[in-house]
Amino acid sequence: MATDKLRIAAENAVAQALRLKKGESFLLVTDTQKLPIAEAIARAAKAAGAETTTYLMTETLRPILEPTKLFRELAPRAAAILYMLEGRIAEKPFRGYMVNAGEKHGRICMMPGITEDMMKRLVAIDFSVLAGFTKKVARALKDADDVVVTNAAGTRIAFSVKGRPWRLDVGDISKKGMHGNLPAGECFTAPVESTFTGRLFISLVDDKMGRGVLDFEKGTLVRAQGRGIEEILENIGTDETGRIIGEFGVGTNPGARICPLMLEAEKAFGTVHFAIGDSYGNGRNKSRHHYDCLIEKVTIRANGKTIAKDGKFLI
Fold first, then answer.
1. Which domains, from first to last, does the chain contain?
2. What end-to-end distance do the CA atoms of the chain give, in Å?
3. E strand or H helix that includes residue 186
4. In this structure, how many other beta carbons lie within 10 angstroms of the beta carbon of residue 295?
5. Which pairs count as long-range contacts for 65-74, CB under 8 Å and 24+ apart, including other chains?
6. How far apart are CA 61 and CA 81, in angstroms?
7. How far is residue 196's CA from residue 250's CA, in Å, rounded to a whole number?
8. Engineered SS bond to 40: which of 2, 134, 162, 244, CB 3.0-4.6 Å?
């Protein structure tokens, strides 16, 4: 039986985030490590009257590089999908398929690597305060033609987000076409690719701790070094779409911590993250790859106004 905190978090995922309705088809994708969380969510979905199908990914099937024929039949039929497999770099194309299928046919909640602790701390909450502050950050950055992100480690990157849509990841994944995370707490868009030039000093890249340096010229990654990034570049191989900037996100969850799991770390106050690869429809780049890179204690300026300084928001 789920603890009270885990039960509340599961109910929030079902009732506040996905807002499952009676009779809706719900596809829950999990692995053996996440079964206690999956059972709590399935119980909440049953109480909501949803028709739940659980897809259990055993270790014998991993890494899963492409969806199976059965999965290709299940995903388009689901009104809502929730994904909580342990994160694996080689499985990014499968995750990409899930996001695309979820957005096209219904809505999708991504929780790669979620833990019971994260559920209790960061999902068993009232999302309304989080949503209000995240909207404030997005308004400060919307249509900025001159965004500059720096930090004391040496990061300096300049770019435009003019004309690019902003998405709010605030625990609302209730409508068709929506895609979000739990835990929530970020706003994100895609930089205008041709404007994105500079250097990033990263603390975390796609669930791998370790310092690294990324150099970009006009939206393309041209040089990289550091622990973790080599494996990612090897996985990208010759696919140039995997080296193009695809996302700029700002963490807005005060309860989130910087840790080896990007799902939580990218939501932390005082951080931003950039991703190479797919832009999730916010920019021009389409790719089967998407890898997030975290930068800590940032100063953010937009059109000459300082929004955050050394990791502390000024708005």
1. 4-122 (3.40.1830.10), 130-313 (no CATH)
2. 43
3. strand 186-189
4. 22
5. 65/90, 65/91, 65/93, 65/94, 66/93, 66/94, 66/97, 67/94, 67/97, 67/98, 74/27
6. 20
7. 16
8. 2
Nearest CA to 95 out of 105, 85, 80 is that of: 85
Q: Are 243 and 217 in contact (CB under 8 A)?
A: no
CA–CA dist 306, 299 (Å, integer): 7
Pull the structure tokens for residue 74: 């299940």
Q: Is 114 helix (H, G, I), strand (E, B) or coil?
A: coil
**54-86 tens-digit pLDDT:** 999 988 888 888 898 999 999 999 999 999 988
- Count of positions (residues) in the chain: 315
**Residues with pLDDT less than 70, the chain:** 1-2, 209
Instruction: Let me know: does 94 contact 66? Beta carbons within 8 Å.
Output: yes
